[in-house]
Amino acid sequence: MTRSKILLILLAVLAGIFAFLVFGYLSKPQGNTIPTAQQSNKALIGGPFSLINHHGQTVTEDDFRGKYILIYFGYTFCPDVCPTELQIMSQALDLVPKDVLAQVTPVFITVDPERDTVDIMAQYAPAFHPKMVGLTGSVEQVKAVKKAYRVYAAPEKQEEGADPDAYLVSHTSYTYLMDRSGEYVTHFKSRTDPAAMAKRLEEIIR
Predict the structure, then answer these.
(1) In the chain, what are the domains?
(2) CB atoms < 10 A from the CB of 93, how many?
(3) What is the pLDDT of residues 167-192, one digit of tens each?
(4) 204, 147, 80, 124: CA torsion to nearest 10
(5) pLDDT tens, 125-173?
(6) Cβ count near 87 (within 10 Å)
(7) In Å, what is the CA distance from 57 to each residue of 3, 52, 96, 130, 152?
(8) Confidence (pTM)
(9) CB 169 within 8 A of CB 154
């Protein structure tokens, strides 16, 4: 084998090694790469929103920064599920130590903005807990926040001749806990024991 052929073989081998190293480096997640939900093991729940609180003020997710927020999506005309879940949230907050309670803002977001006006939310939300914030908005604003939190909500089919304003709404019934920066922490299923919720809140916040 001539020297020129040996040189060509060596160059080919070196080129292969170089290509392998480059491919391996590029395949690695880099420091500034945004992880997917699977990589970070976090649910893609939450995000920017703009709504109106029960005092008639426009608020965004930034207004809740620095506090943990317990969020429940429902509607004031809900006959049973929503009041039950809000009562559970209220009882849990009454069970946590004062230093933990001071770091939590309970939030009730309507999925029925056409009926849940600011005035109605002002009467409804604080009736469950003095710290509770009721949020409503336009149909589009509520649609956007439902999408951000992966919440399902849709009016149920009514019988013919029924009062068109007396409809029920099927919806997701979870209570979400978001951290001080608005990131998802965990959620509580429907009819969670208030004492269990309070214990979990204390464990996370402390």
Answers:
(1) 3-33 (no CATH), 50-157+165-205 (3.40.30.10)
(2) 23
(3) 999 999 999 999 999 999 999 999 99
(4) 80
(5) 999 999 999 999 999 999 999 999 999 999 998 887 788 888 999 999 9
(6) 13
(7) 82, 5, 29, 17, 26
(8) 0.79
(9) yes
